[in-house]
Amino acid sequence: MSVPAATTPRVPVGYLGPAGSWTHQACIELYGEDALVPYGREQLFTAFAQGRLDRLCVPVTTSVVGATPYLDDVLAMRGASIVAEYTRTLGYSLLVQPRTTRAQVKTVLAHPVALQEVKPWLDREMPTVERRPAASGGAAAEEVAGAAAADLAAMAPPAAAQIHGLVALAQGIEEGPHNVTRWWVIGREAPPPTGHDKTSLRLQASEQAFGSALQTLSPLASRVLAVYERPGGRTLDAHVYVIDLAGHAAQEPLKSFLAANAGFGLLGSYPRRY
């Protein structure tokens, strides 16, 4: 997979920390190791809203579970725009303290999405271990590194081993095209068209109204790449839909469509990576 050329943001890029998470790895591949700042989930979005970050990076969809909880955080933002997407095939490492054996491991820590992604491997290789959620792969590795007992393991990116002083008992766990994550980079200024772009729209509608909305969208049907549904937070039949389309909002036919259909909110237009 080709890596986008690194850019130099005006102020730091925030990511879901601590260091050693897959989002940290994605940011390194996008921007290099300088000017990357780890935050907790709430602090990340607060820092952006307060202008302390030029960009933030969060995982929004995976091939295993679909939309992640962080997609809801992005949908709640105001005055922000998706400026880039990034995809990566994941392969987890089972990380432990030095000299810990697999037989000693009683609990495996991982992000909830990661626990679903590695479930086939755990079911087969370590079916009796407890599976405990962590805030991120980096947080899981950090907890294992600081534990008094040697019976914890983390499912985390390989880079987390060096960062947190751990060793890998197994590597490349569930690696392959079936285990891919997509990140959004959120910024403030929309990038110009490149000729190979993607646009994400936000639509809030009831289940009944969504049918009419699809009819409105029908002239762009050949451009629809994906549709994700999220809870609307008001009533059972209220939903927020994210619609990915091929093309840029500043160019036709999307430009005219958005001008004529105010119910479709623009989340961002950005270079298409897949």
Task: Set down the secondary structure blueprint.
Elements: E1 13-16, H1 22-31, E2 36-39, H2 41-49, E3 55-62, E4 66-67, H3 70-75, E5 81-89, E6 92-96, E7 107-110, H4 112-117, H5 119-125, E8 130-133, H6 137-146, E9 152-156, H7 159-164, E10 167-173, E11 180-187, E12 197-206, H8 207-217, E13 224-231, E14 238-246, H9 254-260, E15 264-271
Parallel strand pairs: 1-2, 1-3, 7-8, 7-9
Antiparallel strand pairs: 3-4, 3-11, 5-11, 6-9, 6-10, 12-14, 12-15, 13-14
Main features:
274 residues; alpha/beta; D-Maltodextrin-Binding Protein, domain 2; Alpha-Beta Plaits; six-stranded mixed sheet; five-stranded mixed sheet; 9 helices
Give a written overview of the molecule:
With 274 residues, the chain is an alpha/beta fold. Among the domains are: 92-173, Periplasmic binding protein-like II (D-Maltodextrin-Binding Protein, domain 2), CATH 3.40.190; 191-274, ACT domain (Alpha-Beta Plaits, 2-Layer Sandwich). The protein is 26% helix and 35% strand. The chain has nine helices and 15 strands. Strands 1, 2, 3, 4, 5 and 11 form a six-stranded mixed sheet that branches. The longest helix has 11 residues, at 207-217. It is elongated and about 65 Å long. 36% of the residues are buried.
